[in-house]
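Repro:
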Amino acid sequence: MAEQSRLPSSFLLDARLEDVLCQILKIDPAEWRATTALWSSGNAWTIHRIPKKKGHRTIHAPSDPLKKVLRALLTQFIQGIPVHLAVHGAHPGTSIVTNARVHVGGKAFYLLDLKDAFPTVNRSRCTAIFAPAFTGYITVVTGLPEQDGKRLAETFIDLLIVDDVLPQGFPTSPAVLNVLLGQVDRNISQLLRSSSTTDGVVYRYTRFVDDLTISSSDDVIPKKLRQKIRQAVKSDGWTIQGTKVSYFGEGADGDEERTTKYPEVTGIIPNQDGRLTIPRPRLNKFRAILHNLLEVADKRASGDESAIEAVKAQMAKDVVAFRKRDICLDPNILPEQFYAREWPLTTREHRLIVGIVGFVGMVYDQKLPSSIRDLYLKAKVRFRIGTRDMSQSHSYSFVKEVE
């Protein structure tokens, strides 16, 4: 178990404030006590390091009690704080599809990615924005003195932070990032609005967590404007991932940002004819995965002994891993019972199926391309993938993982 921070002093509430905290978050007091106990013992979360092209991504996976508290904090507080209209991720009613749809019809695109966006958020940055918002809300809804409101606000902020930075993997972190990036969103929007007034070109801007997209109704986004956009990001203390800056549009020879590869906005192509499509290579990969997993499942279901033994061995390993990491596949059943369902797939295989069906269905809104339609429908029926399952798979991280 990875070493974790000691229990923050703000968690040591008297019975009166603890009761108020549970009422505000609408959680059972037992969930709060379990969270503090796990935090004290170093078991509040598990750290995973996921390899990426350069280095790794550190993920903090919260235990079930902490996850419930964080989700309550997210829905009761953080999602109530206004965010910019450009935000299309980790915010109700938005998704990778709504993000891409804004740029349908664009002729030139400028794509940027923030470097280490989550670790860039330290405690002081978080406190500066959230302490006044939390304190004000608490005092209004409870009638408590301001001092008590500040004390509980400190508790909530300590729930958001691990080792003085914003952890990737907490359900609250993307929404926190949306609030803290508000100044960047305003800076870029004002800059584009001013440029539109000057040259008559319509610019559109969206941000999906740490992915920024600017599109233009013209064939060019001037180099000087792109420089100002980068400066608008840097001036608020954020860093741009240099290797992920991409400009598609007309430009002078030697423009190091320019690419001829048609842009993907959060894994989706916004076509000029109004359609959203999945890039052909990725769609072909999805089709191959669906085909292979359907064949594997059929073999196991038909009694192929080697196939059955292989999946049983993998399932047994998964169950052990889940118990060690306190991962819950389904809050209502045990891992062994989860595997007794009618689909003969490992958890990763099932996640792939659900993710692909969910992503493809969301992009095409059931108007599926012929190349994948039959496999999509067969997988959806074969593995009983419903709307509830699919809604859990609609994330840009899934698209990146399948690459």
